[in-house]
Amino acid sequence: MRVLLSGYYGKGNGGDEALLATLLQMLPSDVTPVVLSGNPEETHRHYGVECYNRMAFLSVFKALRSCDAFVWGGGSLIQDVTSTISPFYYGGLMALAQVMGLKTVAWGQGIGPLLRYPTRFLARRNFTGCTHVSVRDRSSSALLSNWSIPHIIAPDPVWALESKPVPELVDLPKPRIAVTLRNHPQLTETRLTNLTQALVNLQKETQAFILLLPFQKSEDLGIAEKIHTQLKDVSRVICSEDPQILKGVFRGVEMSIGMRLHSLIMAASEGSRCFALSYDPKVNRLMEDLDIPGWDLKDLPDDVDLISKTWINYYDNGASLSSEKIQSLVDKAFLHRDLLKEALK
Q1: 20 to 30 A from 300, CA-CA: which of 33, 132, 170, 204?
Q2: C-alpha angle with apex 136: 134 to 138, nearest 5 degrees?
Q3: Residue 293 and residue 284: Cα distance in Å, rounded?
């Protein structure tokens, strides 16, 4: 069976690449994956799979015609807050696959917010037409239940991604704190300045080495480098295009401060205590599910000392998830693999 995989792949986003890596890890061995990518050459080089340009309609149509099934491959594909075009792109592909008679699967989805009637209407039609659906959070599950659409709910698939050791960490000092910030309107210059000064205070108090992790170079690298200039000898910017290595960076990290959803998931799954800076409802959902402390960026305190003291207190007294809780989340994430086996048999 040939299966076409659609997601925000090939765009240099560590979280979405982690979803692709996990999806490829979970596909049944007798399935041939075909991937729609923003950078098909790079995706082919990294994963060794057949790829097509996600924005070239004729190539996409050719790929659809050559496949037996179509999979929405994880993430927040169906939401109309950060993009009004995105849900119509992904929804249009799903609708076309359904019209062409392919088996269609929505896998590891985080649905919404859906604020506009046209996107809600299309999303409901899409999910109703799927043969199998899995979601990663209670809010998405509640929406599908309201639409009377059968589905399973399980933790984000990236919980189950196998991590790799990172050789360049061997010579770096311990203890370590990992930081992942991204470009966003809510991360104003003033807030970034305050967060940077709070990190300087945190480092001085804990004597921890700071790992600055851009999950998407185009959005994150400039911020990481700006923070690094204030922490010259006690920090390192670490970039990796391999999501398994990116996840491996969090091994042995005492504390992680993250904006990006998958930075927090990777950190928590590797046993790091996490502190969230939320810019999106999906991050708030994770905070609620795992009892992760943090602030909405729009409500970030103006007092640098308050930020510093909160972080220092959490570093000294906070707790990571227990090994039993982590294993339970990993085991449950494999329900997404079971769904693929059932859907693609």
Answers
A1: 204
A2: 105
A3: 10
Provide DSSP, 48-84: --EEEETT-HHHHHHHHHH-SEEEEEEES-S-SSS-S
Structure tokens at 138: 């209670």
Q: What's the mean per-residue pLDDT of the chain?
A: 97
pTM of the model: 0.96
Asked if pLDDT for residue 82 goes beyond 90, the answer is no
What is the pLDDT, as a whole number, of residue 115?
94
Q: What is the DSSP string of 250-297?
A: TTT-SEEEESSHHHHHHHHHTT-EEEEEESSHHHHHHHHHHT--EEEG
Instruction: Identify the pLDDT of residue 297.
Output: 98
Q: Is the dihedral of CA 297, 301, 307, 309 positive or negative?
A: negative
Structure tokens at 203: 């480092």
53: Cα separation from own chain's centroid: 22
pLDDT of residue 84: 85
Segment (H or E) for 152: strand 152-153
